[in-house]
Design brief:
73% helix, 0% strand, Helix Hairpins
């Protein structure tokens, strides 16, 4: 499922929860969608961290991967 659709559905369930409440099935769906969203966020954040290059290491001619 595309992350935009996951976010849209999470928001939809959130609005419904505030107004009339959620059924047990919707609660399970919401929890699963939140888990998917957080896993995606963590994966993307980890990728960003893994691609950081240290300027000091490059200036000293060191290989940042060896650290």
């Amino acid at each position: 499922m595309e992350i935009e659709k996951v976010i849209a559905r999470i928001n939809e369930l959130s609005r419904k929860n505030k107004s009339v409440g959620l059924t047990p099935e919707e609660l399970v769906e919401r929890d699963e969608l939140r888990r998917l969203y957080l896993n995606n966020f963590k994966r993307n954040f980890r990728n960003q961290l893994d691609n950081i290059k240290y300027v000091e290491d490059e200036e000293n001619g060191e290989d940042p991967i060896k650290h």
